[in-house]
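anyone seen this seq b4? input:
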Amino acid sequence: MLRYLPFLLVLALWIYAFIDCLNTPEEEVRGLPKVVWVIIILLFGEVLVGPVAWLVAGKARRAPVGGGGAAAESPRARRAEWVAPDDNPEFLKSLKENQEEDKKDDEALLKDWEADLRRREEELKRRESGEDPQPPQT
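predicted toks r here
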């Protein structure tokens, strides 16, 4: 089993570099077009030249968190500024608005149910007392 380990490590690096290249946005690819990097990784993957070249020279490195600079203006950095829903005042405001609308809808539905229940109770009392029930109103 140990003799297969180098082959598996090369294969893992090859697959990682290939998928990483495919998932990297075009604006973060350095040196060559993305399609050329994919071809290099596929052609020279067995000898580790393609995947290592991609990891060293092909992909733009990210700036450290809080480091600022030009890399902080990249789309990936903008996505990192995501705010959790419970910290987002706009989201919380929309929740309050939705709750108020739902409450109004629920109250109207409850009033309809109560009116229907009263009507049915009155009809049941008339039947029990022997009066002629009114035909059901639709």
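The chain is about 60% helix and 0% strand. The chain has a mean pLDDT of 81. kinda curious what u guys think
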